TrEMBL record:
Organism (species): Periconia macrospinosa
Keyword Kinase (UniProt): no
Signal peptide start and end residues: 1-18
UniProt KW keywords: Signal
Protein name listed in UniProt: SnoaL-like domain-containing protein
Length: 364
């Protein structure tokens, strides 16, 4: 598999499943990737025959999301609610069609026979228009063959994984047309013993709270239109390198999940943004989709940068700072945030860590 090209992965779904399956990212396949990312373009087969979408309500679509995960848990892939021409966007710039995605799910079950997302209830679930956003924990016992970074099958570890999973879906008549998946793979690898420093059993994460059930503290008004506008300003400030609470609309009380195990406070978040700006002076977010409901906003973006300065990584990924590789990445990137009075009070940043390391050829 060392020599397989990116396109050959798409063409040979069984090989794609063997290498990519179960959210075990094929690091060796990413090393050649640069900022171009040919896979982040839709394939022709991914288009529906008609542009006429059948619109369901947000409540119907969020319910359908739950039903789809029920089918996943029941291993009932016939009722998975995916459109025949669905495009499934995985971490690592991998796009699968329905056959590839179903194969990947089967491979996932062979590695973790009891793998299931906790969808009753999700930690966060909301939507807008034809879009839904679901964030929760995925748990499973690794009781089957486990592909490592080179695709070699390791014997079952019998260890349990529990990590965040996000599904952002674009619906048409009760079926998913586009699915954006993110899984906290580094955390799973630490739990499996493939990376050092296993995380604590229970870690805080973004979740429903008295503030979010209902989805807004102001049910009389829907603040999401103005929050979406502010989110745009937040991204502009990010791109301009203005890592300041006012420019980025960050609450002094903010907690940001996704960079470390415990969550970062305001200063910790600003510090880490500054350190990434040193590593990637041209760091840039290109927003593709913003989804807002109540106090909640989710974004689908492409994050890109060229590694021109020292990069600090968590200790389980690197022993020390990684010197500039001069390589670039351009990968899907997601945020989910909760807003109060025009400021972000809690945020989850879903980074494609392994995809970035692969694009920069930084070995694990
Ligand atoms: C899927 O896409 C193909 C090619 O564009 C098209 O012929 C087919 O009708 C589509 N299927 C559905 C169910 O939309
Ligand atoms: C969309 O639906 C309308 C009404 O059913 C139909 O007249 C039109 O041809 C459809 N458009 C496409 C692109 O299929
Ligand atoms: C993957 O497993 C194979 C077989 O045990 C081993 O030779 C190889 O070094 C492993 N690769 C990584 C990156 O862990
Ligand atoms: C949000 O950001 C905009 C643009 O920088 C700024 O004008 C505004 O004051 C900020 N709002 C809050 C509540 O921080
Ligand atoms: C900070 O957040 C905590 C819990 O999320 C809340 O109880 C407290 O009132 C907040 N403080 C401010 C100044 O917003
Ligand atoms: C990256 O570019 C800098 C400046 O041009 C150069 O000094 C350095 O050797 C390059 N590093 C690599 C790994 O190519």
């Amino acid at each position: 598999m060392q020599s397989a090209t990116l396109l050959s992965i798409l063409e040979m779904s069984s090989i794609a499943a063997a290498c990519i399956g179960s959210f075990h990212l094929p690091i060796h396949e990413m090393t050649a990737r640069n900022s171009v990312n040919p896979l982040l373009t839709k394939r022709e087969v991914s288009q529906p025959a008609t542009t006429n979408d059948t619109h369901w309500t947000v409540a119907q679509n969020t319910r359908q999301m739950q039903v789809s995960d029920d089918a996943f848990i029941a291993r009932d892939l016939l009722h998975f609610n995916h459109h025949p021409n669905v495009s499934v966007y995985y971490p690592g710039a991998v796009v699968m069609d329905l056959d590839e995605h179903l194969q990947d799910m089967r491979l996932l079950f062979s590695t973790y026979s009891d793998m299931a997302p906790h969808n009753h209830n999700y930690r966060v679930l909301f939507g807008e228009g034809d879009w839904t956003v679901a964030l929760t924990q995925l748990t499973g016992t690794n009781d089957g063959p486990l592909p490592n970074a080179t695709g070699a099958l390791l014997s079952p570890t019998m260890r349990t994984v529990k990590a965040g999973i996000m599904t952002i879906a674009h619906w048409n008549g009760g079926l998913i047309m586009e699915e954006y998946l993110w899984v906290d793979t580094p955390k799973m690898w630490r739990q499996l013993g493939l990376l050092p420093s296993p995380p604590a059993a229970e870690l805080p994460d973004l979740e429903l709270s008295p503030y979010t059930a209902p989805l807004t503290t102001h049910p009389d008004i829907d603040p999401s239109t103005i929050n979406k506008e502010k989110m745009k300003q937040t991204n502009e400030a990010f791109n301009a390198g203005k890592f300041e609470p006012d420019s980025m609309n960050l609450s002094s009380n903010i907690t940001v999940y996704g960079f470390n195990d415990e969550g970062l406070d305001l200063q910790g978040f600003l510090d880490i943004l500054s350190s990434y700006k040193v590593a990637f002076p041209n760091l840039r977010l290109e927003n593709q989709q913003t989804i807002g409901q109540g106090d909640w906003i989710a974004t689908i973006s492409h994050l890109s940068g060229t590694h021109q300065g020292s990069l600090m990584l968590p200790a389980y990924l690197a022993d020390g700072p990684v010197a500039a590789t001069n390589k670039s990445f351009n990968l899907l990137h997601y945020t989910i945030s909760r807003w109060q009075e025009g400021e972000i009070v809690a945020m989850k940043v879903n980074i494609d860590t392994f995809g970035i390391l692969g694009a920069l050829s930084i070995p694990l």
